[in-house]
Amino acid sequence: MTLKKRWIAWAAVGVVALGNAIFWLAPYNIAASVPHLPGVGEVLHQYMRNSVRARARSVAVPDHVDLDDPGLIRLGAGHFATGCQTCHGAPGIPRNPVVLGMRPEPPALTSENWTAKDFWWIARHGFKYTGMPAWPGKGREDEPWAMAAFLTHYDEFDAASYADAAWGDRQAWRAAAVRFGEPSEAVALENACIRCHGKDGLGREGTAPKLAGQSEAWLELVLSAYAGGHRESGFMEPLAAGLTEEQRSALGQRFAGMDGAWQGRPVAGDPERGRMLAETGSEPEDIANCASCHEGAGTDGLSPRRADTPRIAGQDGYWLVNWLTLYRDGPVPDTPRAHLMAAAAKPLSDEDIADLAAYYAGR
Amino acid sequence: MRRGTSILFGVLFLTALGGCDGRHNWMAGAGEEAAAIGDLFLILMVGAAVIWSLVVGAAVYAHRRRAHPGLEREARLFVIWGGVVFPVLLIGALLVWGLFLLKGITADEGDLTVRVDGERWWWRVTYETPTGDVVTANEIRLPQGRTALFRLTADDVIHAFWVPALGGKMDMVPGRETTLALTPKKLGNWGGLCAEFCGGAHALMRFDAVVMAPDAFETWLAREAETAQVAADDPGFQVFLDEGCGACHTIRGTQAAGPVGPDLTHLAGREKLGAGLYEMTPEHMARWITDTHAMKPDIDMPPYPHLSGPRLDTLVDFLMRLE
C-alpha cells in the first residue's frame, strides 16, 4: 500500500517536472517561419473544419435574409473590402506578401468547401490562434449574413465585377491592402460611405440603408454612437472609429443635404395590417403606434417630429425588419433615447415586424 | 421561551388585525355585497363557536361520566342525529344561502355598467353610458346606493378585482368575461387592489374606489365624458408630442390617441398616480416621468431620464392641468 502510494507520488512529481520543462524550455517552435511537424498542420486544419461544421449545423438563416439578394451580396463585398481583403486578397487581387508569412496563412478564398452557414459562423466568431477576428459588432448576429451571401457567390466575381460590387462607380481605388476601414489617401472619406450608401444617399439599390435627407442630428448621433461603441455594427464601427468629430459632422451635413425620393424596397408582409399598427397601435397586444414619433413633420408629413429620430417611411423593408428585430431582441444601442424604441419593439411578434416593414417600405 | 412565543404570536395577530382597519376593511360594511358576506361570516363564526363549545362540552362530559352500556341505542341515535343529520342539514342550508348570495353578487344587471380591463399593472376603466363609452383608468367612482355591474376582462394574465370594503373579489381571466355587482352604501374613498398574483408589480396594482352621492357622481361622469381642452400651441402639449407620449397614451380631443397606456384625458382629476399609488402632485409626476421604474418596477412605460429643467416642468404643468 505504502509502496503504491510512493509510486504515485513519484509519478506526480515526474509529470509536474516534465510539464515545467516543456513549458519553460518550449521545445515546440512556434515560429511562423518554421513549418509544423509533419501532420500537425493537417490535424489542426481538419479540427478547425470539424469545429465549424459542428457548430454551424444549428444555425438558421433568418426569414428575411435572401442570400441571393444582389444588395446583400454587394454589402458583403463592401465589407470584404473594409475588413477581409487586407489578408485574404479579393477576386482578381492577390494576397499581399506580408500575409503570406503568417502561419496559418489566411487563404485566398473560394465559395467551395463551405456552406453559407459555415461562412456565417466563421465571420461571426473568427478563429483562436489565427489572425481571424470575431465580428466587430459583438451582438449583431444578423450582419455576417451579408458575408455569407457574398462568399457563397465569391467564385462568380472577377476583379472588375468585385470592384463594381464593393465600390460602385468609385473604382479608382485598387490597392491590395487597406488599413482596417480607416479612410486614408487610398480611400477618400466620402468613398467610404457612398460605396454602400450610394452617392445619392439612397443605399445603392438595397445595399445599405437610405440616408439622404435624414436629419443631420440623427446622422451625427448614430456615427458618434458607432464610433464610441454605443451602437453595435460590424460594418459601421470599424469605419466610424477612425473618424474625427469634424468628419462625422461633415458627413452628417452632407447626407442630410441630399434630396432623394425614398422608395423602400419591399419585404414580405401585410402592409394593411402594418398601417393599422403604425398609425393606431394595438391595445390587446400593447403595441404603441409608430407615427407618434416617426411621422408628423416634413413636407410629406412622413418625417419625424424630432431631429434625433430617424425617418422610416420609404426605408428598405430589409433594414426595417432588421432594426425592429434588433430593438426587440438586442443588442439595443445605449444612446439616450434608444430604450424608448426598445420598449416599443418589445411586444412585437415576427409577423408584426414583417407587416410594419412592408407598410413603411411602401410609404 | 413560552413567554417569547406568545409575544411573537401576539404581535403577528395584531399585525394581521391591522389588515382589518380602514379603507381595505372588508367588514366595514361599506357595500351591500360585502355586508351580506359579512353577515354570513358572523353567523358562521358565532354558530361555529356555539357548536364547537357544545361538542367539546359533550366530550368533556363523556370523559368524566362512567360508561353506561345500557344506553347504547340512545348513544347511536345521538351520533346519527347530532353527528350526521344535523351537520348535513346545516351545511346544506349554508351552501344554499351562499349560492344565492353568490348569484346576487355575480348578477348580470345593474343601474350602471362599468367595464374593467386588467393590465399589467393597472386598470383600464370604461363606463357604459347612453351616449357612449367613457374611458378612464385606475380610479373607479361609484354612486351611493346604486348597483354597479362590473364586466371584468384581462388581456395578458389572470388578475383579480377586489374592493374589500365594497365586496368581491372576482377573477379577471384573459379570453373571457366575468361579472361582479357592487352596491356601495357608505361614502368614501375605498381601496381596491389586484388579488391574484400577476407578476412583478402585482402588489402595486391598486386603485381608488370613490363612492359619491348620486348627483355628484352624475356631474363627475358628465365631466369625465368631455374631451380635454388643450390649445394646439400649448407648450406642454408640444413637449408631450415631441417625446412621443401619444404613441401609448390618449388625450381625447387631441391627436394623441395611443391605445396602450392609461387614458390621460382627465389625469389630474384622479386622486392618485401610478394606479392607486402616489398622491397626484407635480413632484410625483416629475419623478414618475424621469425615474419611472424606481416608483413602480417592471412596468412597460419607459423612463425619460433625459427630460429635465424647463422642458420637464412644462410637461408636468401641462399634465397637471388635465383635470
From TrEMBL, chain A:
Keywords linked to the UniProt accession: Electron transport, Heme, Iron, Membrane, Metal-binding, Respiratory chain, Transmembrane, Transmembrane helix, Transport
Gene Ontology MF annotations: electron transfer activity; heme binding; iron ion binding
Pfam families: Cytochrom_C (PF00034), Cytochrome_CBB3 (PF13442)
Sequence ranges assigned to domain Cytochrome c in this UniProt record: 71-155, 176-259, 269-363
Keyword check for Electron transport: yes
Cofactor: heme c
Residue ranges of the TM segments: 7-26
Gene3D superfamilies, sorted: Cytochrome c-like domain
Name used for this protein in its record: C-type cytochrome
